[in-house]
Amino acid sequence: MSQPVQQRILKTAIPGPESAKLHHRRTQAFSASFGITLPVFIESADRGILVDVDGNHLIDLASGIAVTSVGAAHPKVVEAVKNQAERFTHTCLMVTQYEPAVQVAERLNTLTPGDFDKRTGLFSTGAEAIENVVKISRTYTGRDAIIVLSHAYHGRTLLTMTMTAKNAPYKEGFGPFAPEVYRVPSPYPYRWNGNPENIAQEAFDQLVDQITTQIGAHNVAAIIIEPIQGEGGFIVPPPGYLAKVAEFARENGIVFVADEIQAGLGRTGDLFAVNHEGVVPDLITTAKALAGGLPLSAVTGRAEIMDAVPAGGLGGTYSGNPIACAAAVAALDVIVEEDLPGKAQRIEAIARPRLEALGGDGSVIGEVRGRGAMLAMEFVKPGTKIPDAAAAKQVADHANSNGVLTLTAGTYGNVIRLLPPLVMGEDLLNEGLDVIEAGVRTLA
Ligand SMILES: *Cc1c(COP(=O)(O)O)cnc(C)c1O
């Protein structure tokens, strides 16, 4: 299949009649418990464009939630998948082995921060990587407690939804939750109740106070933090916070984990979001953008921690599937060779000033924030900080029905987040931003 024309083309209303027919079939066949941002059906996709079954070319500002950083059909990824699928699709890494799994581990050990001996374990989904981080940290430390932040998102399995902060839709009705998960305040600069000059220290003091008085640092196995909170609304911690927490973890024998499942692998303008702060985690989780669209996740970090679980304790039938690993080798090479962190910086240079120009005093946009190609606008009632989820939804709906796929996020549902593929062309990006601007103007 040739690459779709990199142009927004609207042939029908969005969704069009063919999508509507398929969507009707979906409602008759598929569980109604799954959400859908835009009920179009996709026929082909790559770089900045999704082509639907009605022939509409949509601008992609979602990347399938930060997955298709290299595009949805990068020739190198497609070639690697084809080659691997023709040779074999599966053997199970716990039964017999294959080189692509070793190649992925070698690349991640090299690319992740930290000048020490590292090992990698491969799994299938982000939630599974987080589950395994907990198993590894508990075995290594002999402790139970896991510390997470408010506004955190770590997945939808029992343990990871427990670690996720937001109730509906992620937790409502799904309890009882897993034990020994403790939550401390996220240093959310825009909504911090305290001294705006001193957020990193105040949030850190609260973390230390809660751990010391309520749990005991000697009972804590791991502190797990997204270096930029994703689903929570692209919350960037104030400078210095992550370094203080990493230092506290080190002093207390606690494993410090960066969940880079959304922010990692070039998205923020550096290979890893922790690199912006020079923070080196003990363990780092990756998934979403790792395998160019195939399901693969990883835990990478200090060899002595990664080797703590006795052989046989980690694994999974599909962990490190060979097709996903072949795709990941290709995707990681593209991220480095095509300088996707540099492309993310370029996206920020174009998009941030345009988004900031929409804000200002008395605006519906309370804050523009994020890093690289992970940018967000938080919508509020003008002149206040009262979250306005309806405004965010109106702008997203405007963009979606005009052929610009746009996601919302945030604990209060009042954030529009932009996650374009890092390989998106600049004209297309600007056109997508034109439509979002028009959407914001509909609020006036
Ligand atoms: C998406 C996400 C997860 C969960 O990944 P899944 O593949 O959906 O299980 C975990 N952590 C973060 C930060 C994420 O963005």
TrEMBL record:
Cofactor(s), names only, from the UniProt record: pyridoxal 5'-phosphate
Keyword Transferase among UniProt keywords: yes
EC number: 2.6.1.19, 2.6.1.22
Keywords, in A-Z order: Aminotransferase, Pyridoxal phosphate, Transferase
Pathway: Amino-acid degradation; 4-aminobutanoate degradation
Family the entry assigns: Belongs to the class-III pyridoxal-phosphate-dependent aminotransferase family.
Name of the protein: (S)-3-amino-2-methylpropionate transaminase
Organism: Streptomyces plumbiresistens
Gene: gabT_3
